[in-house]
Write a structure and sequence with these properties.
- This protein has a single domain, classed as Sandwich (Jelly Rolls), CATH 2.60.120.
- About 0% of the residues lie in helices and about 45% in strands.
- The protein contains no helices and 12 strands.
- Strands 1, 2, 4, 5, 7, 10 and 12 form a 7-stranded antiparallel beta sheet that branches. It has a 5-stranded antiparallel beta sheet with strand order 3-6-11-8-9, with no helix packed on it.
Amino acid sequence: MRLADSIPFRYASCACYLLPAGPEGPQFFSQPLDATQTFDPHAPREDWYPVLNLRSRSWLGYKYFNFGAGPKEGQRLKLVLTLKENLPGRVNVYASAAKAKYHEPEQPKVLIGTIELKGLDNTVHTVEGTLDSTVLKGRKGIYLEFLAASDNEEICQLNKLQFVVETED
């Protein structure tokens, strides 16, 4: 396989849909502002702005990714997550059509893939899963559902997500 193309990554903290709401649900990481800190836009960056407290039955949603005409014949689409795992579980990946107007109800979500989490590695690393890319054409909302055996513990901390198109050699 070779990498053909990728859609630029998004920080997990740009999620616009979080469930459940409140202290039991997903939380955005925040840092105190340090006025003495400088920023060099040309320096390599290893940013870590995760969404914390992702427990079983937590949801994150991202609006919108533009998949254009979708993957071509012989290509497959993968979702790559950069995270720290704490517990074994899985992430179900759903897609929904974009709303034409803000006040319209959410469109139905379609399951397009699953990513297994082993829960063995508490370091920052990537996991990936192949998606049913027949659904991914045009603008789509992407939703992640986190599931594990324990409801009361953090499954993972999610930092980044990226879609990658691969072709077979």
